[in-house]
């Protein structure tokens, strides 16, 4: 009887510690999931900010092509076209690679990611930002080149 009297408070405090540890684990898991959800949303937001510009890339290439064809000595137009095409390819490649790494539930429904996929998500955030930078830069340079070519010299 004396033994159970001694162990009863210990058992109660071990149970209390277990509850606290379980609560802490669940809180950290929720925080990790929220951070993952936020990173996924950021990746998708970057993609969504430049996806509508895909049509603009095609239009700029169409406007630059006649200038590139008529001015063989000026490679600025050909370079601008090349940069736009590379940006277009970067978007297509990024979307393909992202889709190969993550499924619909992970992207759209917040399905919990494995540790490996969480690392991939960090990589994808870097990749999508670089792709967006390349797209925006190539568009800006092409627009500037077209604007300057239209101005009388």
Task: Return the string of H and E elements.
Answer: HHHHH
First-residue to last-residue Cα separation:
104 Å
Percent in strands: under 5%
Name the overall outline: elongated
**Structural class designation:** mainly alpha
- Indicate the radius of gyration in whole angstroms: 27 Å
Main sheet specs: none
Number of DSSP-assigned strands: 0
SS summary, helix count:
5
User: Residue share in helices?
Assistant: over 70%
What is the average of the pLDDT values? 83
Give the domain tally: 1
Segments where pLDDT lies below 50 for 5+ residues? 1-11, 20-26
Describe the structure.
- With 153 residues, the chain is mostly helical.
- It has one domain (32-150).
- It has 5 helices and no strands.
- The chain has helices spanning 2-50, 54-70, 76-101, 104-108, 115-150.
- α3 packs antiparallel against α5.
- The longest helix has 49 residues, at 2-50.
- The model is unreliable at 1-11 and 20-26 (pLDDT under 50).
Q: What's the arrangement of secondary structure elements?
A:
Layout: H1 2-50, H2 54-70, H3 76-101, H4 104-108, H5 115-150
Helix pairs in contact: 1-5, 2-3, 2-5, 3-5
Features:
single chain; 87% helix; 153 residues; 5 helices; mainly alpha; disordered N terminus
Task: Summarize the model shown.
87% of the residues lie in helices and 0% in strands. The chain is mainly α and 153 residues long.
